[in-house]
Automatic annotation (TrEMBL):
Main location: mitochondrion
Entry keyword Heme: no
GO cellular component term of the entry, any: mitochondrion
Family in the record: Belongs to the FAD-dependent oxidoreductase family.
Entry keywords, A to Z: Apoptosis, FAD, Flavoprotein, Mitochondrion, NAD, Oxidoreductase, Transit peptide
Reactions mediated catalytically: A + NADH + H(+) = AH2 + NAD(+)
Domain FAD/NAD(P)-binding: 53-359
Protein name: FAD/NAD(P)-binding domain-containing protein
Origin superkingdom: Eukaryota
GO biological process: mitochondrial respiratory chain complex assembly; programmed cell death
Coiled coil: none
SUPFAM superfamilies: FAD/NAD(P)-binding domain, FAD/NAD-linked reductases, dimerisation (C-terminal) domain
A single MF term (Gene Ontology): FAD binding
Length: 500
């Protein structure tokens, strides 16, 4: 299940359905069985048309919600509607063999998007959970007033509380149709654990790789590949439409600094280039990437690494009463993560009122787990509480010795104030610091800890309680370093030069 947060009970890492392999049906087997016969075949209980709790989804948010429910009601009657036509089991061996760089990237940016079940033997049978394999959530119809779900096989299930915890989907790249590349061995879309494992294996069999995407996932993969290339001779190129890596998130001076760092470890940066098509050469060996300015780029393998996640909310579009946020596409919920009448939403699917930052939709692993856990607790409680957690994301660029933790809107279009600890021999050092992002009302709406994870909780507190603090107050409370060692760097907006 999830191993980095909300680890409050091993029991909920598995589902009590006896022979787990019975649920991993091939497409041929599915055609021979009705959806109704697939439901609950894993339990000894008779088929039911009512469950106290129904969870739509099978990823990290859904599993966290199960933990939350069971913390309050260990014997709760729970029905999970899996998002996939077959349930994927976490492959412990695959994870164990994956390099730490690739595993870190997968855990942060993709793990919560993949429905999966942990099959630890000591946990099997301990959770009162029924599983129903659901081909697609687009065919689910939710009757909010009647508290029932019409399934894609025509059967109906009633509930007391329902959580929509659909896994989001990685945003497709620009004008590229990623689905057309999934069967092509030389183009990886980096959506599943197997994609990361394939990339890890390819490092030893190809001469060059091009990573497309200048966000955190793309940059992490480019740096990870360059570390491998230092040993194997693999050539790595990093292509993005922006003028620098992480340019949509970092002030320009820091993006350019990252560009220098990754260039120094052997990454060829290809900036301000939009890839519009990828085709195999006639020899079937190399790929030809067509760029927007009619240039062509040749590579052995292309890696499409989009960081952004889109919500998957087809169920809300066909269920009267549920409101979609026009700006983010998330299901609108209140501060307790409830949409209305016992229907909750969490994870990438929810648009919620952040206590510090206003209404927003979260896409990080941290939010997927913590919001799911909170929603589950509220669903099982007579006294639901507000969701106050301020989600963060984590990015580890080992090859350039950078660890960053972001909270809120880490958006380069905002005005930034950066506090940097100087080195005695390098007054302009930007190796360790904290950047605050401010809106037009001078309110802090985001923060990035750069090699300063020890300041994360103080940064959280600043964002929650000291929204418009002046620079002196921020520096004093942050305690990054003695005052004489700190340099302050400001930018007015994306693209501006730093103003000391």
């Amino acid at each position: 299940m999830f191993r980095q947060a909300a680890n409050v009970g091993k029991a909920t890492a598995a589902v009590a359905f006896g022979a787990l392999n019975e649920c991993a049906l091939s497409s041929g087997e599915e055609d021979k069985n009705s959806r109704a016969s697939l439901a609950r075949r894993n339990t000894a209980r008779p088929q039911k048309n009512f469950h106290e709790f129904v969870i739509v989804g099978g990823g990290s948010t859904a599993h966290a919600a199960i933990e939350g429910i069971m913390m309050t009601n260990p014997k709760a009657d729970i029905l999970m509607l899996s998002e996939d036509s077959k349930v994927h089991h976490i492959d412990a061996e695959l994870e164990a063999n994956l390099s730490s760089d690739f595993l870190d990237a997968y855990n942060e940016w993709r793990r919560h998007l993949n429905p999966s079940l942990d099959t630890e033997p000591d946990a099997v049978g301990s959770v009162p959970l029924t599983l129903l394999l659901q081909r697609t959530q687009d065919k689910l119809h939710l009757d909010v007033e009647g508290k029932s779900l019409l399934l894609d096989d025509g059967t109906s299930v009633s509930y007391n509380k329902c959580l929509i915890a659909s896994c989001g989907t990685p945003k497709e790249f620009y004008v590229l149709d990623e689905t057309s590349f999934e069967a092509a061995g030389s183009v990886l879309t980096m959506n599943t654990l197997k994609d990361f494992a394939r990339l890890d294996e390819l490092c030893s069999s190809v001469q060059n790789v091009t990573v497309v995407g200048g966000g955190f996932l793309g940059t992490e993969l480019a740096v990870a590949l360059a570390r491998r290339g230092a040993r194997s001779g693999l050539k790595v190129a990093h292509m993005y439409v922006e003028d620098g890596p992480l340019a949509r998130h970092l002030p320009r001076y820091l993006s350019k600094h990252v560009q220098k760092l990754i260039t120094a470890i052997g990454v060829e940066t290809v900036a301000q280039q939009l890839c519009t098509d990828i085709k195999k050469q006639a020899d079937g060996e190399r790929l030809r990437m067509t760029l927007a300015d009619d240039w062509e780029w040749m590579t052995d393998t292309a890696v499409l690494a989009s960081t952004h996640v889109d919500p998957k909310n087809g169920i809300a579009e066909d269920s009267p009463g549920l409101e979609l946020d026009p700006s983010s596409g998330g299901i609108v919920v209140n501060s307790q993560l409830e949409a209305l009448n016992g229907v909750y939403a969490a994870g990438a699917t929810a648009s919620y009122p952040d206590m510090a930052l206003g209404r927003r939709r979260g896409c990080s692993y941290d939010h997927a787990v913590m919001s799911g856990l909170h929603a589950g607790k509220n669903m099982a409680s007579d006294t639901p509480v507000l969701y106050r957690h301020l989600p963060m994301f984590h990015s580890h660029l080992r090859g350039i010795k950078v660890v960053c933790d972001g909270i809120g809107r880490v958006d380069a279009s905002l005005r930034t104030v950066g506090f940097w600890a100087k080195k005695p021999d390098s007054p302009q050092s930007i190796e360790r610091g904290v950047i605050f992002y401010k809106n037009t009302q001078n309110k802090i709406v985001g923060a990035l800890c750069w090699n300063a994870s020890d300041t994360l909780e103080r940064v959280r507190d600043i964002m929650q309680h000291k929204h418009t603090a002046d620079q002196d107050a921020l520096q004093e409370y942050l305690s990054l370093a003695p005052e004489s060692w700190v340099t302050v760097v400001e930018t007015k907006r994306a693209g501006n030069n730093p103003q000391d």
